[in-house]
Design goal:
single chain, two-stranded antiparallel sheet, Tesmin/TSO1-like CXC domain-containing protein, 14 strands, 7 helices
């Protein structure tokens, strides 16, 4: 985007300008020299150290709630109102936190004036219909419409779940157990089911290694996007610097994703040449 001044189109200035020197790599991409990692923290902290000491309630500022977990006996909060305290009943298992997109959905529901409880039959039926792709008039026991339940190559866990759900001889107890299992697969941070998640933003399933959810922006995005803490917005490309400030993601320097300095086989030439990246951008190579 440009603006005109004295008959010349100038680039519109950004709110935060790059503060480091730069070089142009072999692909014509402008990169900072010795960049600073500005990526916001991605996920929840270690659950073993997760506890809060809220004085009034456990909502927006609560460390447990912000990390998708209910409060525990280790917390020192008083008058706890953490809506995630019911997660053990909801998931049918202890120590399962809400995935980021599900947590965002819960917060949106909690802001409405209508009573909201994850344990209510109405809420769970609503969630189950979303996860199965059913319409409001369809019986809750109807066959799932999403292809992930039909193709074992897409997700074997969902395919197995769909096969069990379609069994006409299921008892009410078996249905309830399967429902909670699907909630753990789709909505819970459960290492037993690492392949797929349900996105409320996209209203569909996605593979966990292909998409993610930004806890700051509250939206799902491509796995190659990351949130810059300086500019406070998501930017594309884990191996690309932020266009606003020149900061980089935490994966920028990873051995598989980042840029590293190549070692020269001729030590004498290294000593006689300028070793700065600006003078020798070819000494940096892209690993992917």
């Amino acid at each position: 985007m440009t603006f005109s001044m004295i008959g010349i189109d100038w680039p519109r200035p950004t709110a935060i300008m790059w503060t480091t020197s730069t070089f142009i790599d072999g692909n014509g991409i402008r990169r900072p020299v010795n960049p600073k990692v500005t990526e916001a923290p991605k996920g929840p902290i270690n659950p073993a150290t997760l506890k809060c000491a809220c004085k009034s309630s456990c909502n927006r500022s609560c460390k447990c709630s912000k990390n998708g977990a209910g409060c525990s006996d280790a917390c020192k909060c008083t008058s706890c109102t953490n809506p995630l305290n019911v997660l053990p009943d909801f998931f049918g298992q202890e120590d399962v936190r809400a995935k980021p997109c599900f947590h965002t959905w819960i917060k949106k529901q909690s802001r409405s004036r209508r009573p909201f409880d994850l344990r209510s039959t109405a809420t769970q039926d609503k969630l189950l219909r979303l996860l199965l792709g059913l319409r409001s008039q369809d019986p809750i026991t109807s066959k799932p419409t999403f292809e992930e339940f039909e193709d074992p190559d897409l997700d074997p866990d969902l395919f197995e779940w769909g096969t069990e759900w379609n069994n006409p001889s299921l008892s009410d107890e078996d249905q309830d157990s399967l429902k909670k299992k699907l909630f753990r697969i789709a909505l819970g941070e459960d290492d037993s089911y690492p392949q797929s998640s349900f996105s409320f933003c996209a209203e569909g399933w996605h593979q966990d290694d292909r998409a993610g959810h930004c806890r700051v922006c509250g939206t799902c995005h491509d796995w190659r996007e990351w949130h810059c803490g300086v500019c406070d917005k998501c930017t594309y490309g884990v191996t690309l610097p932020c266009q606003g400030c020149g900061g980089v993601s935490g994966s920028y320097f990873d051995s598989e994703l980042g840029y590293v300095r190549e070692e020269s086989s001729d030590s004498s030439s290294d000593e006689s040449s300028d070793s700065s990246p600006e003078a020798s951008p070819s000494k940096r190579r892209r690993l992917v």
